[in-house]
């Protein structure tokens, strides 16, 4: 059936975000009792018990619209990060803040610089606003800041740097990133996406929040979806110059972050003991997986996030499919720009050990004693 009304021409050049099969579908398809989901970079340890307790208490005012200004959450995040309340813009995930930045600052023909393999929503949102994405190839999985600097033109409006980068998990070093920030013209907005920053343990990672006082064109993105374990509630935010924040508020939906999400985020923020525990467990799991990949002779990107991209030497779709049959859901690197890789979320100790056994079996490295 061909509809008479047509969508915008730009939509013919955009593919929808590819979602993997649900765990229920995979269980049914392969006759599995359970699925170990290691594909979406979620916090495998869940969220703070304080959040669970708060949600179980219920909320008798769900008939009311949420606080469009996120007043309590704004106050708590402001105090926790040491930034002004007016510098904060909250969104339905940090994805929405990316959309707001594009909507507010990209016009027809404008350019936004980004890595060629990075979070895809940068490109999508810029493209929808009529802008052009200037994609600079990664170097060994890391942002090529020299190449990005050389790509700046009089049409450049935004620069996106995902640090740690998704999907490679790599970071840009302190001196290199600071030098880059200092060199970018002040009329260009630099967006540093730090969705995974709480997982970083490398001391060569730049603490960017103090730079907000020096660089008015700096925007820092954070989220409650990753280490805080609130991916299902969708809460993200940007920290930026108050004038920039004011422009984003003009294009933001009024009630974009629901009441339960706001309340849960406040509770999650108050439990930094849980966050520290998750970071420690993640670092141990990351070290274990890297050691196992080294043992198996598999190259991988040095990650500072809660996932690792590893080169299997075979078609990523094939390996991901075979792992799914054995109850392990990972992300193939085919659509991520590295066709012979898979990206695996770091799980619990039990998850990680079971995953390695399954990977060995799928790669033909150890076919004895494995219970599929």
Automatic annotation (TrEMBL):
Family affiliation: Belongs to the class-II pyridoxal-phosphate-dependent aminotransferase family. Histidinol-phosphate aminotransferase subfamily.
Keyword Lipoprotein in annotation: no
Keywords tagged on the record: Amino-acid biosynthesis, Aminotransferase, Histidine biosynthesis, Pyridoxal phosphate, Transferase
Pfam families: Aminotran_1_2
E.C. no: 2.6.1.9
Annotated coiled-coil segments of the chain: none
Every Aminotransferase class I/classII large domain range: 36-359
GO biological process, one term: L-histidine biosynthetic process
Gene Ontology molecular functions: histidinol-phosphate transaminase activity; pyridoxal phosphate binding
Cofactors, names only: pyridoxal 5'-phosphate
Catalytic activity entry: L-histidinol phosphate + 2-oxoglutarate = 3-(imidazol-4-yl)-2-oxopropyl phosphate + L-glutamate
Residues with N6-(pyridoxal phosphate)lysine modification: 226
Assembly: Homodimer.
Name of this chain's protein: Histidinol-phosphate aminotransferase
Annotated metabolic or biological route of this protein: Amino-acid biosynthesis; L-histidine biosynthesis; L-histidine from 5-phospho-alpha-D-ribose 1-diphosphate: step 7/9
Listed SUPFAM superfamilies: PLP-dependent transferases
First-level EC class: transferase
